[in-house]
Amino acid sequence: MRKGWTTDLWRLALLLIAATLVGIAVGYPLVAILIAQMGFILWHFREQRRLEQWLQNPESHNVPEAEYGLWGEIFDLLYRWRQRSQRREQKLETLLSRFQQAASALPDAVVILRGDGAIEWANKSAQRLLGLNLTKDIGQPIANLVRQPEFVSYLRAREYSTPLQMLAPGRENLSLTVRIVPYGIGQKLLVARDVTRLKRLEDMRRDFVANISHEMRTPLTVITGYLESLADLEDTLSEESRKSVSQMQEQTARMQNLVTDLLFLSRIETGPRTSTWESVAVPAMLSAIREDAQALSGDEKHNITLDIDNSIWLRGNETELRSAFSNLIFNAVRYTPAGGDIEIKWWADDQGAHFSVSDSGIGIPIKHIPRLTERFYRVDTARSRERGGTGLGLAIVKHVLQRHDARLEIESAENRGSTFTCNFPTEMIVHQELKAESKVAT
Ligand code: ADP
Predict the structure, then answer these.
(1) Residue with the nearest Cα to atom 10 of ligand 1?
(2) What is the pTM (predicted TM-score) of this model?
(3) In the CATH hierarchy, which fold is given to the domain comprising 106-194?
(4) 39 CA distance to ligand 1 centroid (A)?
(5) I need a labelling partner for 359 at 20 to 30 A (CA). Which of 93, 170, 199, 426 fits?
(6) Is the C-beta atom of 318 inside 6 A of ligand 1?
(7) CA 281, CA 133: separation in Å to the nearest integer?
(8) pLDDT digit string (tens) for 4-38?
């Protein structure tokens, strides 16, 4: 097949030859050639105009037709290119509509958000779970429609690694977990799942543990009372009975500690967070805990030092913070051999406030570290029991820190020691004006 441009060259050559012959015949060859050239240019001009008209509005016009030459080829290529892109568009449209059908059928709410937080698309479940109106609410900022404060601050925080637990808007009996996944340029995918059943089961488990712990309290108090009376009769008891009474006292004390920890844990898991917020004098609290830790250490004579900034207080709940800090400090005493070093630090920097306790104790093998904050997870159960641990200390620490928007960091090396650090956000710090020295090292 000949190329379009060679056809056009032949055509021009023939036209010029014909014009020359006709020009010679009529006596004006130059005029005839000029007219022929003008005609050729006008023809090109006409084809260009047709192309330009089509390009102005390619959707509503067919590609112009030309049978021969370069223009024929150009129009042919354009026609084929247009058909290909129409097929591609159709394929994409089918894919998109299939995806939308699948996403609409999902039981989870799916919402596509633009960079400014406005809704671009939402599926049917978003109507049921988030109360969105799929015709009216498209284009509206989602924070204007789902107005729970925890959702609005989650959306604004831009820290989406952990999902948000919340009640469905206007539906007290529907619990949701909301996840936001950023993608593209500033866009976000919001997925909300109905977890009502799971939440109910979790509540039942929590209530069961709380109730059973509560029920065990009275019998344990009665048994402890009787055991104390028995122990008072020491002189009248045989050696064997004395041993039995002492062992029973030890075990009931363990059970009482367990019940106290379980009740505390269930209270911080269920209780409202902000009702008891106050300014907490952390430096004084740490000094007092250090005294208790020294008492717990007793004859083991650990070397417990304090390095604290007295000007830093914290917004929070005093009882909960005391429990978290003392659990970490008492653990350091429990898991550090006699005479070992324990260092308690409290300071603030531009990242926030930090509490850390480092010990020169037995350390923790790295594989156990991710699971330490699970209830009853112990590296060495026998040792923990022998040292008076309940297995709930770090679970309590984790929950208290969560309620204070803080994070726990654990670093440890076997047989060399561990450092537990609690990192509190800057917003929780309360700065105190100090009259005397602000830094204390004991
Ligand atoms: P427990 O009451 O058994 O101490 P925790 O929840 O406080 O329970 O701690 C869980 C486990 O983590 C402990 O049983 C112990 O194995 C390990 N652990 C905690 N703190 C330390 C520490 N400072 N040094 C070494 N191991 C520790």
Answers:
(1) 378
(2) 0.68
(3) Beta-Lactamase (3.30.450)
(4) 97
(5) 426
(6) no
(7) 49
(8) 788 888 888 999 999 999 999 988 889 999 999 99
